[in-house]
Amino acid sequence: MQAWRVHTTGEPREAMRLEEVPEPVPGEGEVRLRVLAANVNFPDALLTRGQYQIRPPLPFTPGVEVCGETADGRRVIANPSLPHGGFAEYVTAPAHALLPAPDALDDAEAAALHIGYQTGWFGLHRRARIRSGETLLVHAAAGGVGSAAVQLGKAAGATVIGVVGGKAKARTAEQLGCDLVVDRTAEDLVARVKEFTGGRGADVVYDPVGGDAYTASAKCVAFEGRIVVVGFAGGTVPAPALNHALVKNYSILGLHWGLYAAKDPAAVLACHTELTRLAAEGAVRPLVSERVPLAGAADAVQRVADGTTTGRLVVVPSLPDGGAR
Protein backbone atom coordinates (compact mmCIF):
# COMPACT_ATOMS: atom_id res chain seq x y z
CA MET A 1 0.00 0.00 0.00
CA GLN A 2 0.97 3.67 -0.25
CA ALA A 3 1.62 5.72 2.88
CA TRP A 4 3.31 8.99 3.76
CA ARG A 5 6.18 8.47 6.19
CA VAL A 6 8.44 10.74 8.21
CA HIS A 7 12.01 9.47 8.59
CA THR A 8 13.50 12.74 9.88
CA THR A 9 11.37 15.43 11.53
CA GLY A 10 11.00 18.80 9.84
CA GLU A 11 8.58 20.87 7.76
CA PRO A 12 5.87 18.66 6.21
CA ARG A 13 6.75 19.28 2.54
CA GLU A 14 10.36 18.20 3.17
CA ALA A 15 9.89 15.58 5.88
CA MET A 16 6.95 13.59 4.49
CA ARG A 17 7.67 10.97 1.79
CA LEU A 18 5.11 8.91 -0.11
CA GLU A 19 6.31 5.29 -0.04
CA GLU A 20 5.19 1.76 -0.82
CA VAL A 21 4.96 -0.12 2.48
CA PRO A 22 3.29 -3.29 3.81
CA GLU A 23 -0.23 -2.97 5.18
CA PRO A 24 -0.17 -2.49 8.96
CA VAL A 25 -0.86 -5.57 11.10
CA PRO A 26 -3.44 -5.04 13.88
CA GLY A 27 -2.19 -5.59 17.40
CA GLU A 28 -4.15 -6.95 20.34
CA GLY A 29 -7.55 -5.22 20.48
CA GLU A 30 -7.04 -3.43 17.15
CA VAL A 31 -8.71 -3.61 13.74
CA ARG A 32 -7.46 -2.72 10.29
CA LEU A 33 -9.41 -0.08 8.36
CA ARG A 34 -9.42 0.94 4.74
CA VAL A 35 -9.04 4.73 4.78
CA LEU A 36 -11.96 6.47 3.10
CA ALA A 37 -10.86 9.95 4.16
CA ALA A 38 -8.26 11.44 6.53
CA ASN A 39 -8.74 14.91 7.96
CA VAL A 40 -5.70 17.20 8.17
CA ASN A 41 -5.14 18.67 11.65
CA PHE A 42 -2.59 21.13 13.01
CA PRO A 43 -1.20 18.37 15.29
CA ASP A 44 -0.17 16.52 12.11
CA ALA A 45 2.25 19.37 11.39
CA LEU A 46 3.48 19.31 14.99
CA LEU A 47 4.04 15.56 14.76
CA THR A 48 6.00 16.01 11.55
CA ARG A 49 8.12 18.73 13.17
CA GLY A 50 8.71 16.64 16.29
CA GLN A 51 6.93 19.25 18.41
CA TYR A 52 3.84 17.34 19.52
CA GLN A 53 3.38 15.93 23.04
CA ILE A 54 3.27 12.47 21.46
CA ARG A 55 6.42 11.45 19.55
CA PRO A 56 5.96 8.19 17.67
CA PRO A 57 9.05 6.21 16.70
CA LEU A 58 10.58 6.98 13.32
CA PRO A 59 9.58 6.33 10.65
CA PHE A 60 5.90 7.09 11.21
CA THR A 61 2.84 8.10 9.22
CA PRO A 62 0.98 11.25 10.38
CA GLY A 63 -2.81 11.58 10.27
CA VAL A 64 -4.71 11.52 13.55
CA GLU A 65 -8.33 11.07 12.46
CA VAL A 66 -10.01 9.12 9.67
CA CYS A 67 -13.26 7.86 8.33
CA GLY A 68 -12.59 4.26 7.44
CA GLU A 69 -14.23 1.00 6.48
CA THR A 70 -13.96 -2.20 8.53
CA ALA A 71 -13.47 -5.64 7.00
CA ASP A 72 -17.19 -6.31 7.47
CA GLY A 73 -18.19 -3.11 5.67
CA ARG A 74 -18.98 -0.72 8.53
CA ARG A 75 -18.22 2.97 8.01
CA VAL A 76 -16.54 4.32 11.16
CA ILE A 77 -14.64 7.27 12.59
CA ALA A 78 -11.33 6.43 14.27
CA ASN A 79 -8.08 7.78 15.64
CA PRO A 80 -5.39 5.59 14.02
CA SER A 81 -2.80 3.85 16.16
CA LEU A 82 0.50 5.67 15.60
CA PRO A 83 3.00 5.11 14.07
CA HIS A 84 0.48 3.98 11.40
CA GLY A 85 -1.38 7.27 10.90
CA GLY A 86 -4.15 8.18 8.52
CA PHE A 87 -2.29 9.47 5.45
CA ALA A 88 -2.21 5.99 3.99
CA GLU A 89 -4.47 3.49 2.29
CA TYR A 90 -4.88 1.37 5.44
CA VAL A 91 -4.54 2.02 9.18
CA THR A 92 -5.01 0.19 12.45
CA ALA A 93 -7.14 1.55 15.29
CA PRO A 94 -8.40 0.43 18.73
CA ALA A 95 -11.56 -1.61 18.22
CA HIS A 96 -13.22 -0.32 21.39
CA ALA A 97 -12.92 3.31 20.29
CA LEU A 98 -14.51 3.05 16.85
CA LEU A 99 -17.47 5.39 16.36
CA PRO A 100 -20.19 5.01 13.72
CA ALA A 101 -19.85 7.59 10.96
CA PRO A 102 -23.03 9.75 10.79
CA ASP A 103 -25.24 8.90 7.83
CA ALA A 104 -25.87 12.63 7.29
CA LEU A 105 -22.20 13.24 6.40
CA ASP A 106 -20.06 12.04 3.52
CA ASP A 107 -16.68 10.42 4.15
CA ALA A 108 -14.66 13.66 4.16
CA GLU A 109 -17.13 15.42 6.44
CA ALA A 110 -17.26 12.45 8.80
CA ALA A 111 -13.46 12.36 9.01
CA ALA A 112 -13.53 16.02 10.10
CA LEU A 113 -16.28 15.63 12.70
CA HIS A 114 -14.33 13.95 15.46
CA ILE A 115 -11.42 15.82 17.11
CA GLY A 116 -12.36 19.40 16.20
CA TYR A 117 -16.03 19.05 17.06
CA GLN A 118 -15.46 16.99 20.19
CA THR A 119 -12.93 19.61 21.31
CA GLY A 120 -15.48 22.34 20.62
CA TRP A 121 -18.28 20.53 22.42
CA PHE A 122 -16.23 19.75 25.53
CA GLY A 123 -14.75 23.25 25.52
CA LEU A 124 -18.08 25.05 25.29
CA HIS A 125 -20.32 22.72 27.28
CA ARG A 126 -18.14 20.78 29.75
CA ARG A 127 -15.54 23.48 30.51
CA ALA A 128 -17.19 26.83 29.85
CA ARG A 129 -20.80 25.72 30.59
CA ILE A 130 -22.07 28.03 27.88
CA ARG A 131 -25.68 29.15 28.17
CA SER A 132 -28.21 30.23 25.58
CA GLY A 133 -28.13 34.00 25.15
CA GLU A 134 -24.46 34.39 26.07
CA THR A 135 -21.88 35.91 23.74
CA LEU A 136 -19.17 33.61 22.39
CA LEU A 137 -15.99 34.93 20.78
CA VAL A 138 -14.14 32.46 18.52
CA HIS A 139 -10.61 33.11 17.30
CA ALA A 140 -9.65 31.73 13.86
CA ALA A 141 -13.36 31.38 13.17
CA ALA A 142 -12.89 30.43 9.52
CA GLY A 143 -10.44 27.61 10.26
CA GLY A 144 -11.24 23.98 10.92
CA VAL A 145 -11.27 24.18 14.73
CA GLY A 146 -12.83 27.65 14.85
CA SER A 147 -15.60 26.88 12.37
CA ALA A 148 -16.65 23.91 14.50
CA ALA A 149 -16.87 26.16 17.59
CA VAL A 150 -18.92 28.72 15.64
CA GLN A 151 -21.45 26.08 14.60
CA LEU A 152 -21.64 24.57 18.08
CA GLY A 153 -22.03 28.01 19.64
CA LYS A 154 -24.92 28.85 17.35
CA ALA A 155 -26.50 25.46 18.08
CA ALA A 156 -26.25 26.28 21.81
CA GLY A 157 -28.14 29.55 21.31
CA ALA A 158 -25.15 31.87 21.72
CA THR A 159 -24.46 35.12 19.91
CA VAL A 160 -21.19 34.44 18.09
CA ILE A 161 -18.36 36.85 17.32
CA GLY A 162 -15.91 35.42 14.78
CA VAL A 163 -12.33 36.72 14.63
CA VAL A 164 -10.48 36.14 11.35
CA GLY A 165 -7.43 37.33 9.44
CA GLY A 166 -8.32 38.72 6.01
CA LYS A 167 -11.31 39.45 3.79
CA ALA A 168 -11.65 35.94 2.34
CA LYS A 169 -11.83 34.41 5.79
CA ALA A 170 -14.27 37.11 6.88
CA ARG A 171 -16.66 36.05 4.10
CA THR A 172 -16.42 32.44 5.27
CA ALA A 173 -17.18 33.41 8.87
CA GLU A 174 -20.21 35.39 7.72
CA GLN A 175 -21.47 32.39 5.77
CA LEU A 176 -21.05 30.23 8.89
CA GLY A 177 -23.55 32.50 10.65
CA CYS A 178 -21.37 34.67 12.90
CA ASP A 179 -23.37 37.57 14.28
CA LEU A 180 -20.29 39.79 14.11
CA VAL A 181 -17.09 39.21 12.15
CA VAL A 182 -13.92 41.08 13.10
CA ASP A 183 -10.94 41.13 10.74
CA ARG A 184 -8.03 41.40 13.16
CA THR A 185 -5.74 42.59 10.35
CA ALA A 186 -7.83 45.69 9.68
CA GLU A 187 -9.86 46.39 12.84
CA ASP A 188 -9.39 46.96 16.56
CA LEU A 189 -10.68 43.68 17.97
CA VAL A 190 -11.16 44.88 21.55
CA ALA A 191 -12.97 48.05 20.51
CA ARG A 192 -15.31 46.19 18.15
CA VAL A 193 -16.19 43.59 20.79
CA LYS A 194 -16.83 46.23 23.44
CA GLU A 195 -18.99 48.22 21.04
CA PHE A 196 -20.98 45.17 19.95
CA THR A 197 -21.62 44.00 23.52
CA GLY A 198 -22.42 47.41 24.97
CA GLY A 199 -19.16 47.43 26.91
CA ARG A 200 -19.76 44.07 28.61
CA GLY A 201 -17.41 41.90 26.56
CA ALA A 202 -17.66 38.23 25.58
CA ASP A 203 -18.97 35.72 28.11
CA VAL A 204 -16.94 32.88 26.57
CA VAL A 205 -13.76 33.11 24.50
CA TYR A 206 -12.63 30.08 22.48
CA ASP A 207 -8.93 30.41 21.73
CA PRO A 208 -7.01 27.89 19.61
CA VAL A 209 -4.42 30.53 18.64
CA GLY A 210 -2.65 31.86 21.75
CA GLY A 211 -0.13 34.70 21.62
CA ASP A 212 -1.65 38.07 20.74
CA ALA A 213 -5.09 36.47 20.43
CA TYR A 214 -5.01 35.54 24.11
CA THR A 215 -3.83 39.03 25.09
CA ALA A 216 -6.80 40.55 23.25
CA SER A 217 -9.14 37.98 24.82
CA ALA A 218 -8.20 39.07 28.33
CA LYS A 219 -9.01 42.65 27.40
CA CYS A 220 -12.49 41.93 26.08
CA VAL A 221 -13.74 39.05 28.24
CA ALA A 222 -16.80 39.87 30.34
CA PHE A 223 -17.16 39.94 34.12
CA GLU A 224 -17.27 36.29 35.21
CA GLY A 225 -16.40 35.30 31.64
CA ARG A 226 -14.46 32.20 30.66
CA ILE A 227 -11.46 31.93 28.34
CA VAL A 228 -11.05 28.40 26.97
CA VAL A 229 -7.42 27.72 26.01
CA VAL A 230 -7.54 25.18 23.19
CA GLY A 231 -4.13 25.47 21.53
CA PHE A 232 -1.34 27.68 20.27
CA ALA A 233 -1.59 27.69 16.48
CA GLY A 234 -0.10 31.20 16.50
CA GLY A 235 3.15 29.69 17.72
CA THR A 236 3.42 31.56 21.03
CA VAL A 237 2.32 30.17 24.39
CA PRO A 238 0.99 33.10 26.45
CA ALA A 239 1.83 33.68 30.12
CA PRO A 240 -1.48 34.84 31.65
CA ALA A 241 -1.37 37.69 34.16
CA LEU A 242 -3.22 36.05 37.04
CA ASN A 243 -3.57 39.36 38.85
CA HIS A 244 -5.66 40.54 35.89
CA ALA A 245 -7.90 37.47 36.14
CA LEU A 246 -8.30 38.19 39.83
CA VAL A 247 -9.32 41.85 39.54
CA LYS A 248 -11.63 41.20 36.57
CA ASN A 249 -13.24 37.97 37.85
CA TYR A 250 -12.80 35.74 34.82
CA SER A 251 -11.73 32.12 34.50
CA ILE A 252 -8.96 30.62 32.39
CA LEU A 253 -9.88 27.06 31.40
CA GLY A 254 -7.54 24.55 29.81
CA LEU A 255 -8.83 21.98 27.37
CA HIS A 256 -7.03 18.85 26.19
CA TRP A 257 -9.61 16.65 24.50
CA GLY A 258 -7.32 13.63 24.49
CA LEU A 259 -7.59 13.39 28.27
CA TYR A 260 -11.34 12.81 27.99
CA ALA A 261 -10.71 9.99 25.52
CA ALA A 262 -8.35 8.43 28.09
CA LYS A 263 -10.14 9.21 31.36
CA ASP A 264 -13.85 9.37 30.45
CA PRO A 265 -14.54 7.41 27.23
CA ALA A 266 -18.26 7.24 28.08
CA ALA A 267 -18.39 11.04 27.83
CA VAL A 268 -16.70 10.88 24.41
CA LEU A 269 -19.35 8.43 23.20
CA ALA A 270 -22.15 10.62 24.58
CA CYS A 271 -20.62 13.61 22.83
CA HIS A 272 -20.49 11.71 19.53
CA THR A 273 -24.15 10.80 19.91
CA GLU A 274 -24.98 14.48 20.38
CA LEU A 275 -22.84 15.52 17.40
CA THR A 276 -24.52 12.86 15.26
CA ARG A 277 -27.91 14.28 16.24
CA LEU A 278 -26.81 17.84 15.42
CA ALA A 279 -25.45 16.69 12.06
CA ALA A 280 -28.73 14.92 11.24
CA GLU A 281 -30.60 18.13 12.05
CA GLY A 282 -28.24 20.20 9.90
CA ALA A 283 -27.04 22.26 12.87
CA VAL A 284 -23.42 21.26 12.31
CA ARG A 285 -21.57 20.23 9.17
CA PRO A 286 -17.78 20.24 8.89
CA LEU A 287 -16.59 22.98 6.56
CA VAL A 288 -14.59 20.88 4.09
CA SER A 289 -13.04 23.42 1.75
CA GLU A 290 -10.92 20.97 -0.20
CA ARG A 291 -10.64 17.24 -0.80
CA VAL A 292 -7.17 16.24 -1.96
CA PRO A 293 -5.75 12.94 -3.27
CA LEU A 294 -3.28 10.94 -1.23
CA ALA A 295 -0.43 12.37 -3.30
CA GLY A 296 -1.32 15.86 -2.04
CA ALA A 297 -1.19 15.09 1.69
CA ALA A 298 2.23 16.64 2.45
CA ASP A 299 1.28 19.88 0.72
CA ALA A 300 -2.05 19.94 2.59
CA VAL A 301 -0.34 19.48 5.97
CA GLN A 302 2.12 22.26 5.13
CA ARG A 303 -0.69 24.65 4.18
CA VAL A 304 -2.51 23.97 7.44
CA ALA A 305 0.75 24.53 9.31
CA ASP A 306 1.25 27.84 7.51
CA GLY A 307 -2.26 29.03 8.43
CA THR A 308 -3.23 29.75 4.82
CA THR A 309 -6.30 27.50 4.69
CA THR A 310 -9.99 28.06 5.30
CA GLY A 311 -12.10 25.26 6.75
CA ARG A 312 -10.87 21.69 6.52
CA LEU A 313 -8.54 19.98 4.06
CA VAL A 314 -9.28 16.27 3.84
CA VAL A 315 -7.18 13.59 2.14
CA VAL A 316 -9.29 11.13 0.12
CA PRO A 317 -7.14 8.20 -1.10
CA SER A 318 -9.65 7.18 -3.79
CA LEU A 319 -9.29 10.53 -5.59
CA PRO A 320 -6.98 10.38 -8.61
CA ASP A 321 -3.74 12.35 -8.44
CA GLY A 322 -4.47 15.96 -9.31
CA GLY A 323 -8.12 15.41 -8.39
CA ALA A 324 -8.43 17.99 -5.61
CA ARG A 325 -11.88 19.55 -5.41
UniProtKB/TrEMBL annotation:
Domain Enoyl reductase (ER) span(s) in chain numbering: 11-315
Protein's UniProt keywords contain Protease: no
Record keywords: Oxidoreductase
SMART domains listed in its UniProt record: PKS_ER (SM00829)
Molecular function as annotated in GO: oxidoreductase activity
Record's keyword annotation contains Transmembrane: no
Protein's name in the database: NADPH:quinone oxidoreductase family protein
